[in-house]
Every structure is written in structure tokens, then in C-alpha cells.
């Protein structure tokens, strides 16, 4: 694996050098389509606005008036008032996956899935990707406004001053197998980082430790500053090459590429166009309201756990193939298709449920994902430098056919941000197993913004969802001799689990007890 990673990365670097020789480098950023903010400056009434909901319980004939907030929500606890005998417990909502449940109030990002809108603190994602950079966007997401020149300088300086990795974290990573998955390595590093700063842990320093803005900000700059370095360290754990410490004279995205590729040569500088590409990718992935991993971060934070554990738990959720691993799945799908001639047969396989279509559809977006529109342009810009990937033709043709087919149109299946991002990461020389890490680096900013917001939310309670119990109601305990096998299915008892290889090796020796 280490040879493959190194070879792929070196090939990408050669492409970068060739591009520098052939054409002047533009440092002002990649060309973008002109974008404008929405004409409307006031938000339409969410869910129709405030009012009341009249509910008649046909079981009892009772009528209830439930208040609707100006945000178009009702308090879930209002349903507890609706009872009809039985065990006396009031109504509850059953909402697997929290499809229609608002678990918090937030000012950080806004999505309109029907219109294909994504905004960070009110700014359209298109404008930020075109005009801003990740460092500035991270400040915006965290503190609610674009920084002044002085604020941005202080922010950048703070991030750089907290970008170095403690020796204990490096040692923890060094103890891992060389073939450990990149995400597993990142999780190890963040958990180790938590132990390096006991003064910020509420379990050790008291529950009020995060009450001060200074303590909050210290953890924020530590995590945002260190996550690119942690990612680079994880990368080189697998590549076998030397990890280069951060360069405090470089920007956020440029510094990340420097740590990957400098090989301890302080004079090395990444291709500015590719650094700008990374900047845009980081902006697109920085925040996306209450997705699975962000919800996990808030859930964990509600218990009062330290921020590093909350962020680690969120990244662990991102590790799941249904969340952060989607772009890797898209790349695998395109590789299996292989050529545009095979797309019609693949499409038929999708319709017959013999194939899975990755990179289309989204829990929230029922139109074109605005990030995918930007990502598609980024693909073209990157391939001008690295050379065109033959799979791009497959992706473009697959999108064209799917978007003109009634089967997908009726189901509102449009390309999402993952559809093209895997091609970009591959062009940059990253192995597929590293794609989710590229997602995690910027998303840490979003996690931290939600963590910070939750600390001052008066409505926050420890997360403790209800359940709909369907199990056995009551039975008496029997001693072991009197018991009979009660399992009615194979999945209700332990399956045959083979001993570990370590156990076999140990017991094959002498006097192993």
C-alpha cells in the first residue's frame, strides 16, 4: 500500500511541475461563473409561520391546541399531553433517522433542498467558493461574520501557532500498523490530543471549564490548526515518506500540500492552482447543518464531554460509508463501468435493482446540489494541470443520461457533491482510502461551530431520545439448570466465532497459562 500511495502522489507532483513549466500560474483563484445573492433579503415564513395546530384525538374525542412557533415548529413535548388511557403515557413521534425532527436551533448554515440553496451565515456558497478562501470562511462559520483585515491576520496567526503536533500524538500514530486506515489513524491522533490537554477536559477541570471565550477559542484554533497536520501525518504513516512539519509562512490549503509533499525541503512550494483547488474543496465541505456527523458532535457535546472526544465521535460517524465514504464509492462505480458504452446497461441494472447508483440523490437536496455545480468546474480546472482522467467521460455521460431519464427525474435524483469530488482527489494523487480524510479536514470547522453554539444555547439538554419498545413485556428468572434454549432464530444466539490468530499462536506454545 505504501509504494502505491507514494507512486500515485509522485505522479501527481510531476504533473504539477509540468504545468508550472508550460503556463504562468494564476494565484488569484480559479475562474468561476458569476453569482449573485438572492434578491430576497427577508426570509419567507418557515413552514408558513406561527399559529396553532388543532388536533382532535378520535380515541377520546378531546381537542388540543398546539402552538406553532414563528419558525414553523411545534414542541415535541406538547404531544405528551395527548393521552388516552392505557399506560397513561402521552403521544410520541416516531421518526427513524430524524427525517422531520429539528433537534436544535442554529444560525450557522441554511439549506433549501428544493431550490438547491446552501448558505454559510447567509452568504451563498457560490460567492464564497468564488471570492473567499478557507481560512476566511472558517472564521465566518465560527463567529458569524467575515473578518476584518486585523481579525483575519490574528486568526491566521493563531491557526499557524497551533498547527504543530505534540510528540505524544506522533508517538501514538507511530505505534499503529503501517496499513492502518487513514481515518483510524486520524481518530487515534485526535483522541491522543485530548490527553495532551487535561486542563480543558470538563471531567477533570470541572463542568464550567468552557464558560470562558478564551478556553473555547483555544480549543478551536488547536483543532482547526492541527487537523491538516494530523491528516498529513496519517498520510505518511501509510506512504512511508517523511512527514514535514507545517510552514508558518504558508496559507491553510497551501500548507497542507506542503506537509504532504515537501519531504523536509523548506524551499518547496505547491502549485498555487492546486492549492486554490484544495481551498475551494475545503470551503464546499466545511459545513452542512445537521448531517449525521454534526448531529453526533452535538449529541456527544450535550453530555458535557471534552471537545476533542466530541470531534472524534463526529469524525467516527463520517468514517461510515453512507456518510463520508460516498465519493470513494462513486469512484469505484465509475471504474466498474469503465467506458461510456457500458452506461446504458448499467442504468438498466440500477432500474432493476441489480446495480447501485452512487453520487446521485441526497437526503436534503431534491434538486441539483449547489456544491456539485462548483465541483464540476473544479474538475475541469484540475485536469488542465494533471491531465484528463478517462473516467471523466464516463461521469459526464452517466450524468447526462441519468438527468434525461424519467426514472431518475421522477425520483429527483441529481448529482451531489460526491459525484465529482472523487475524480478531483484521484487527479491530485490521493488514494481512495484518503478521500474521507479530505472531507474531515474542513468539516472539523463545522463541528466546532456547532459545539460552540451549543455551549450558549439555553434550550440544550443532554440528548436522550425516546424509543418505541417492542420487546417481551415480563418474565421470571430461571436458574441455569432449569433453562431451555429460548432462541427462535439463529440471529438470537451467538454464532460460531473462530479464535483469534494471536490466541492460536499463544496456546500452541508451552506453559501459556
From TrEMBL:
Signal sequence range: none
Gene Ontology molecular function terms on file: acyltransferase activity, acyl groups converted into alkyl on transfer
Biased composition (Basic and acidic residues): 29-44
A GO cellular-component term linked to this record: mitochondrial matrix
InterPro entries in the cross-refs: Citrate_synth-like_lrg_a-sub (IPR016142), Citrate_synth-like_sm_a-sub (IPR016143), Citrate_synthase (IPR002020), Citrate_synthase_AS (IPR019810), Citrate_synthase_sf (IPR036969)
Matches recorded under Pfam families: Citrate_synt
Involved pathway(s): Carbohydrate metabolism
Keyword Transferase attached: yes
Region ranges (Disordered): 17-56
Cross-referenced SUPFAM superfamilies: Citrate synthase
Domain of life: Eukaryota
Keywords of this entry: Transferase, Tricarboxylic acid cycle
GO terms (BP aspect): carbohydrate metabolic process; fatty acid beta-oxidation; tricarboxylic acid cycle
Family assignment from sequence similarity: Belongs to the citrate synthase family.
Protein name, entry field: Citrate synthase
UniProt source species: Apatococcus lobatus
Lineage, top ranks: Eukaryota, Viridiplantae, Chlorophyta, core chlorophytes, Trebouxiophyceae
